[in-house]
Structure formats: structure tokens, C-alpha cells
Amino acid sequence: MKSIMSYDLMETVRNTNEWMGASARAMASYPVWGLTPHPMFKIMSAWGRVTERSFARMVIKPDWGIVSIAADDGRDHLVEVETVMDKPFGSLIHFNVQGREPMARRVLLVAPMSGHYATLLRSTVTSLLPDADVWITDWHNARDIPVSAGKFDIEDYTLYLVDFMKELGPDTNVIAVCQPAPLALVATAYLAEQDPAAQPRTLTLIGGPIDPDAAATEVTDFGRRVTMGQLEQMVIQRVGFKFKGAGRLVYPGLMQLASFISMNMDKHTQAFQEKIWSEASGEATVLDKHYRFYDEYLAVMDMTAEFYLSTVDRIFKGLEIAQNRFEINGKLVDIGKITSVAIKTVEGEKDDISAPGQCVAALDLCTGVPGSMKNNHLEPDAGHYGIFAGSHWRNNIRPLVLDFIDEYADGAEQTSPKPKAATVTPIRKKPRVAPGAAKAAPQV
Q1: What is the reported pTM?
Q2: Cα–Cα distance between 54 and 49 in angstroms, integer?
Q3: pLDDT, position 105
Q4: Angle subtended at Cα 392 by Cα 96 and Cα 311, rounded to the nearest 5 degrees
Q5: Are the C-beta atoms of residues 441 and 316 closer than 8 Å to each other?
Q6: Which of 6, 386, 398, 442 matches a 20 to 30 Å C-alpha distance to 248?
Q7: Which helix (H) or strand (E) holds 328?
Q8: Where is region (Disordered) located (predicted)?
Q9: Are strands 237-238 and 331-332 parallel, antiparallel or unpaired?
Q10: Rounded to an integer, what distance in angstroms lies between the CA atom of residue 202 and that of residue 341?
Q11: Number of C-beta neighbours around residue 19 at 10 A
């Protein structure tokens, strides 16, 4: 599986499907078929349009598409995406709202590097921009990074977060979504010991696998059953000849996408069948709900092999963060060293990727933080994506996170904070179950 030829074969299959869709669309759209009207041609053309677009999106990085926002002054302000810090494997970018005074709330969104681009958090960014200055981590596609740039594992990822936090300063409020939650916690602990003045003011962890063993899911079950050797042989490949990172060992985004889709195959199949029918009926539009979702969902990126494998080995199998024994360059990072950063965790009741109990484990690890500065929210009926996007995020979770940020706006360590509307929600952990058949590799 590690040969360049296998990577290129996978890209060839994708390219062939895109070509087949384009060919079917073009052939079925010839005006001459109007002389012999038949629904087959409309269905073929619709299938071709949907297929061509879907497979083309798999190798296109989405644009942020955030043009402007409305501000308190009653005007629309243009939004400029600017790079603050550029590093080989990731950048720190800022959404500069032109003509607006600096906001009191400064938010660093730590985007997951789990197969999708940071634009997966576009709606999260859009919802925060009217009320905060927002920065985000923009991870780069490993297939476009030359081998000469070196390795990038979870220790390097953590040190990137440390550099980003130092760049923004101590009045920053960090929000880590899903995969980076445990590493954002470690990065904060690293700063607490190495550079306490650079620690963020607050840390909000949303649906992250702090303790994967706290509640079983298909993801954690797969991590238990498969050995590291088997995982390396099954999913690691070398980047093909047409990309700048030719020869680099990666976990391909296309393979991760196949894992994502396999977890809800029936749902995705139905969605595409309905889309093709609506296209054939002339009812679809170029930016309808289907395309808005799948243009983002299908756009995937490769991860470096060392990052993917070290995540599975050290976070899911070794439980190094859950047991507070994570090391960077051979030095233990003690999460208990965090004393002045307010910590909030957010979980979704129906999250089947990071189940309730996995993220809230961070609060027990932060032994140096006063109990009054630790809080958890369990969102009823919310799945994984719902806790950072959609109505659950907009209507319930976002206001709580902003209130949490405001509560510590003075930057002082508070042992007796003012009463707040959000209360700690009791955690209902899922019972541990015996390992069963898993459909997807761990989402890292």
C-alpha cells in the first residue's frame, strides 16, 4: 500500500469518475435529443452533473466565502482573510473586519486536521465574527508539502499551537473543535510551565477525545482492534508524482472520506439519489442545500503518516493525554500545571464520534484549576457536527461560550466567579461495550 503507484491508482479512479460524469452530462445535453424526448437523457444529464461536481470537489480546497458581516454601526463591513503566521504545515489566519474597531473578545479557533480543511468551520467563524475578532488554524494538505519540509506528528502539531497562542497573546480565548481538543489542552499546559504569561484567558474544548476510553464508539472500537502495524499497512500511502509532496508518506484524504461515507452509507446514498432526481426534474439550483453541504464534505486533504499514526497510537491506544503522561521532546507536559485558565467542555448527547464523557474528562485532568473555573455543557439531542455548526451551535452553545468568555474578560484568576446562566450538566456516560465490527478508521 505504501507505493506511489497505489496512491496514483486511487487518484486515477477519482479522475475517471469525474471524466465519466462530464462525458455523460455533455452527451445527454446535445440539442438533437430534443427530437426524441425521453426521460433517460434528463436522468443521464443529471447524473453526469452531480457526479462530475462531486468527484471534482475532492481535490479542490474550498474558499472561505465570507464576504462581509453586519456590525453594530448598521453597516456591512468587508471581511479580509489575512495570514498572520505561515509555517510549512499550517498557517494562522485572521478574519480582518475592515473599518471595525478591535473587539474585546479575541478568539482563536483551533480547526481539526482530520481529513477536511479548516473551512469545515466556516459557519462557526461566520457566527462568531459579529461579536469577536477571530483567528483560525489553517492546516495544509500534506500532498502539497515537499518531503524536504520534514516530519509533522502530534508533538509538532502541539508546538504549532504553542507558537500561535504566543503570537496572539494572553488575552486570547481558545476554542478547539473535535480532534485538536486534547492537543490544545496540552499546548496550554506547556505554556503554563514554559511561558505562563502567554497562556490563553479561556479554553473551550468541543467534542474532543480527551479520554477515548470514557465512552465507546465505532472510532474507539476500531482503535482497540487494529494493531499499529496493520493500520500502517492498510491506510498509509506515498504521495503520487503529480503533487509537490511526491514520495511523502500520508494518510490519504480520499481514504478518510471513504471511511466517513461508510459510517452513514444509506443516508449519503439517499441524498445523492434525491439530488439526481431533483436535477432531472429541473428543481435543483447550483447552491442548494445538497451542494452547500457536499461541496465542503467531499473536499478532503491528506495528513502526514506520522501525525495520523501518532494520534492513534498515543491518544487512542496509549491514552497518554487521558492519563496525563504526554511528552514533548522527551519532557513530560503536566496538565495539572494549568492554574489560571478557565476551562469549558461541550459535548453532544448523540455524538457518535466523541461520545459524552470523552471531552469532559479534561476537567478532572486540570487539577490546578479551581472548580469554579471549570464548566461542562451537554447539549441534548445534538450529534457531533451539531455542537459546532447548525441550530444547536447557533441557538444554544454559541451564547454559552460567549458568556463564558465574557465572564473572564478581565483576565484575572477568579475563584468565585459571578453566577451564570449555564450550569454544569450532569454527564450520562455510555456503558462500555464489548468490541464489535467498526466501519471506519479513527477520525483524528
Answers
A1: 0.88
A2: 8
A3: 94
A4: 75
A5: no
A6: 442
A7: strand 327-328
A8: 412-444
A9: unpaired
A10: 5
A11: 13
Q: Where are the beta strands (DSSP E) in 140-289?
A: 173-177, 202-206, 237-238, 249-251
Q: Work out the widest C-alpha separation in the chain, in whole angstroms.
A: 79
Q: Please answer whether residues 386 and 425 qualify as being in contact, where contact means their C-beta atoms are separated by less than 8 angstroms.
A: no
Per-residue model confidence (pLDDT) at position 156: 97
In sequence order, the β-bridge partners of residue 206 are 177, 346
Give the span between the Cα atoms of 154 and 160, in whole angstroms. 10
Q: Which strands form 249-251's sheet, in the order they lie side by side?
A: 237-238, 249-251, 303-304
Mean pLDDT per 10-residue section of the chain, whose length is 444 residues: 78 95 93 84 94 94 92 87 96 94 93 92 94 96 96 97 95 95 97 94 95 84 82 91 93 89 88 93 86 92 96 94 95 95 95 91 95 94 90 94 90 41 41 38 55
Cα distance between the two ends of the chain: 20
Amino acid at residue number 53: R
Q: Distance (Å, rounded) from C-alpha 354 to C-alpha 315?
A: 13
Which pLDDT value is given to residue 444? 57
Neighbours of 2 (CB within 10 A): 12
